[in-house]
Amino acid sequence: MLRGFQDDIISAFGETAGWLIGHLIILGTLVLAVVAIRERDHILNQSGFDRTTLWDALLLVVLTLVLCQTFTSAFGFESVPSLALAAVSAISIRWMVNVLG
Question: Which class for 6: exposed (0-12), middle (13-18), buried (19 or more C-beta within 10 A)?
């Protein structure tokens, strides 16, 4: 599940400790997901986010993914620079829409 990161953990901490740390990361992620699902009403009510904020975040993610796909396929950029450029471009486009109308 952790792919190359698990190999890095094993090389840093050794076979046994790396195995244990990797499994603790997976277990911690699952526990965090369960707590978030159980407390979702409290999180939604107390977070300060409304539908508009969540819609804007979703729009930014979708726009970033579309731009990243465009940069990698049409222009042949590498994936990491494409993702960075797409994120900055999406935020810039969203700002122009909000501020400039």
Answer: middle
